[in-house]
Amino acid sequence: MGYPQSHEPAAPTPIKIVVAGGFGVGKTTTVGVISDTPPLTTEAAMTDVAAHVDRTGDVPDKTTTTVAIDFGTIRLDQGLKLYLFGTPGQDRFGFMWHDICVGALGALVIVDTRRLDDCYPAVDYFEQARIPFVIAVNLFHGRLAHSLEEVRWALAVNGDTPLTTFDARSRQSVRDALLTVCRHALQRATAAA
Amino acid sequence: MTEADGAGRRLPPYMRHADASRPLPDDPGAQAYLDADDAPRLRPYQMTGGRTAPVDPTLALEAQVVADGAVIAAPHALRFEHREVVNLAHDPVSVAELGALLHLHLQVVRVLVADLAAAGHLRVLRPQRAAATDPAMIERVIRGLSAIA
């Protein structure tokens, strides 16, 4: 990597991992527990697609609807910064996913086994976009309601897709889940090379 | 989250400059002010002249931007909202972080950043798309993550 010509400080190389899953599944907790700084939220505005859906009749003040994107950062080394972006939980914000996911190293799809179908849109998206992803069952209260093989069957993901359990409240556990994503991405990258 | 504060104050752009209670960005209190929940909120597109499409629509969330030395030295030549972006970009910062720190919609930040970049006041460092599939880069991420205790 070249150095900037002027005296400007060198910018880190940004690398991105997406944290996806249904509403209330622990995405923000996951990002927050490992981020260097408290998670930040940026707002993205409604596009025309949603503008149509969200038209609320004669409410003149309602000109925009926003969707929050939570994200955190981890400085991995001197020149490398990892960005963790959470996808908006609701299906109807799916149109934003491309913006969030384009160029991602991989994705962590968080699953609550009591509401398995909440993660279907994420699984569909990453399969279609060919972004390496890992299914991570968040162990609420340390219990697994279904075995991982049952989860794999229910989600109909192929055998190459790693399935793991983790605890979104534990920094080490989140780190290990992210490492699983990286190793899966590495396998995919070396196979393609 | 509301767009106006408790007093229902909603300032149009031409009023912002006249608002004596609003500290300038180089004021030490500015960050605290920006962080405060009662900061006056504008309708987002009032700051961009109504445009929602950035000059450069491909500007990634994680793209790094850094202010040019000349504009850091003379930020007062800029419009207020451009100045706020420049003040946060003395060191490299991502588009997403700018959005969060300025409490602005992402599309608004993209428009402001693209304008500043087009004028030569900001340098935009685009993420290398190939990095995400480069085995050496992924191994570097693994090393970095593994070091987290």
From TrEMBL, chain A:
UniProt superkingdom: Bacteria
Q: Which CDD domains match?
A: Ras_like_GTPase
Q: Pfam families recorded for this chain?
A: ATP_bind_1
Q: Name one GO molecular function term.
A: ATP binding
Keywords of this protein's UniProt record, alphabetized? ATP-binding, GTP-binding, Hydrolase, Nucleotide-binding
Q: Read off the InterPro entries from this record.
A: Gliding_Motility_GTPase (IPR052705), Gpn (IPR004130), P-loop_NTPase (IPR027417)
Family per similarity comment: Belongs to the GPN-loop GTPase family.
Q: What is this protein called?
A: ATP-binding protein
UniProtKB/TrEMBL annotation, chain B:
Region: Disordered; residue ranges are 1-54
**Which InterPro entries does its entry note?**
DUF742
Per its record, how is this protein called by name? DUF742 domain-containing protein
Q: Which PANTHER family match?
A: DUF742 DOMAIN-CONTAINING PROTEIN
In which domain of life is the source organism classified? Answer: Bacteria
State a single Pfam family of this protein.
DUF742
